[in-house]
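Chain entry —
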Amino acid sequence: MKQQWNPERILLIRLREIGDVVFTTPAIRALRQHFPTAHLSYIVEPLAAPVVAGNPHLDDVIIVPRRRGAGGLLHDLALGRRLRAARYDLVIDFHSGPRSSVIAWLTGARTRVGYDVPGRGWMYTKRVPRPTEIRARHAVQNQFDLLNAIGIATPDATYSPTEMVANSRAAAEVNERLTALGVRNDDEVIVIHVSAGNPFRRWPPDSFATLIAMLLSGHPRRHVVVVAGASDRDAAARVMGESIDRIGPADRHRIVSAEFTLDELRALTDRAALYIGGDSGPMHIASTSTVPIVGLYGPTLPVRSQPWRAPQWPSEAAQLEGLPCRPCNQRVCEPGDFRCLTQLTPDDVLEAAERALDRAAEIKSH
C-alpha cells in the first residue's frame, strides 16, 4: 500500500493583484484541511497582503516588495537563500510569472507545482497546462488545477468560499467614520466603488451619478458611500459632484465619499446593505462577506470572476449580452468605444440592485 505524502512545510506564492490573491483563499483552506499539521506560508506583495494577513489557515505571511532592476534581483536572490534554508517540501506557485517562478525555483523544494508556461515551466517539478484562450471557467477553479495535480479535489463554493477575516479594529474605525459622516445605525448603506485598474473596466462617472440619484429617490433612509482608490480621487469627486447636482442640496448629506484601507473596506461590506462595483479587487473583497453584490461586467464574464461563495447570498451581474467582441483580452478595444460598459445603462444596474436587495430582504425575513 502506497504511503500518504505529508509535507511538513508548504509555501504558496501569489504576487500582484488583490482579486487574484482573494481567489487563492479556498485553496489555502483546502491545503490546511488536507495537511492539518503542515507549516503553511504564503508569499504576497504589499498591496494585497491584508487579504491573507489574518487568514486562520496560514502560519505566516511573507511580504515581498515590488522592486525592479538589479536591486530587485539581489533582493530576490537573498529571499531565495532564506527560503532554501527554511527547507520547504512543497511549493505551489499560483502566479507562475517571471518573478514568482524564479522564487519557487530558488527554494530548492523537492516538489514545486506551477503552470507549464513556455520559458519557465522547467522551474517546476510538476507542470500543469494553462490554456491561453479565455475560458468560461471560474478563476478559483483554475487555481485548483494546481492542487488537483497533488491529489486535492476542487471544492464547491458553498462549503469553501473565498475569505478575508474581518478585522475588529477596522470595523470600529469604519463605524466611527460613518457616524462622523452622518450615517446612523439604522440607515441603509449602499457602497459603490467607482474606479478600476484599467479603462476596460470603468463605468462612466455620469452613469454612476445617475444610478446614485435613482437609488436615493424615494428612499430617505438610504445613504451611498462612494469609494475609490487613491489614484482615482478625481473620478470619485466627479461622481460626487454630478450626483449632488441630480438630487439637489437638501439630500447631499446622503452621499459621502471616503478612502478605505482593504481591512476597512472588508469591514464596511459587513455594515452595507448592498455593494455595487466593477470586476476589480474591491468587489472580490466584498465577496468574502455576505453583502448583496451587483457586479458590473464589461470585457470579463461573470462565470470567470463572480463571487465564489454560497449561492444563498445575493449576487447579480449587470452586463451587455450578445456583443461579438466580448469577452476580450483587455489590450485593444476593437470597436474603440468600450461599449461593453459605456452602453450599460443605469436602469440596467438599478434593476439588478433592486433584485439583490429584494433577495436579501427575503432571506432576512426567513
In short: Residues 9-148 form a domain with the Rossmann fold fold (CATH 3.40.50.2000).
